[in-house]
Amino acid sequence: MLKLENVQSGYGNKLAIKDISIEIKKGEIISLIGANGAGKSTTLMTICGVVACRSGRITFQEEEIQKKNPDEIVSMGICQVPEGRHIFPELTVKENLDMGAFLRKDKEQIKRDMDYVFSLFPILAERRNQDGGTLSGGEQQMLAMSRALMAKPQLLLLDEPSMGLAPLVIKQIFEIIGQINKEQDTTIFLVEQNANQALRVADRAYVMENGGISFSGTAKDMLSNPDIQKAYLGI
Ligand code: ATP
Prior knowledge:
Elements: E1 2-11, E2 14-24, E3 29-34, H1 40-47, E4 53-60, E5 63-64, H2 70-76, E6 78-81, H3 93-100, H4 107-120, H5 122-126, H6 137-149, E7 155-159, H7 167-184, E8 187-192, H8 195-201, E9 204-209, E10 212-218, H9 219-223, H10 226-232
Parallel strand pairs: 3-8, 3-9, 6-7, 7-8
Antiparallel strand pairs: 1-2, 1-4, 4-5, 9-10
Helix pairs in contact: 3-6
The structure holds adenosine-5'-triphosphate.
The site of adenosine-5'-triphosphate has 12 residues, from helix 1.
């Protein structure tokens, strides 16, 4: 579904990702783990066209996207939930969700999709008329994910969904990531520092170090790999 081949990108005269290759197949959950500053968020932003791809090739469903602008990439079916959530604080929960469906015209299906996200996150249904900015961190993460789902993406990019959340909320968010993947047939690319959770939900994973991919494999193999355990799982 998505292929990065020898991709490089960065900021000013600094390369933040160097010659990386990643492949994501339809229906998979792929995690990208790594330390602070390894280049994980930059990878997602390069896929979305927010940070320019300087060399290499990015293809989505066989079409090159590395020169397309972010709007075109969203309309092709790729949607990102950025780190820090970035919901609209002065709009209500319902209005935030409407914004997610902004590019769609299928009113009946939009209504069904809103019912679906409310079934995933009943707390959002209860708070549908509350301003986004007054939600807790966990509820804002739920809203950001739900808003992205309202765009009906084929590929959902999640940047650090667990950041700053309590363990119980993290558990709930990761269960729902698995549920979205199965029920909506949404392919998921997940960037996480919480390697434990990220590997538990994923089919395969990539490890990023200093802007490059240092390791990749099935999530199951990684969970039992002593080097990964030592470096990323605190075992
Ligand atoms: P974290 O988990 O802490 O978010 P990350 O793996 O997502 O880290 P990136 O945010 O992609 O890493 O950062 C990769 C490198 O690019 C870092 O050295 C960072 O300082 C640098 N960088 C990120 N954003 C910018 C920016 N807007 N301008 C200049 N340098 C940046």
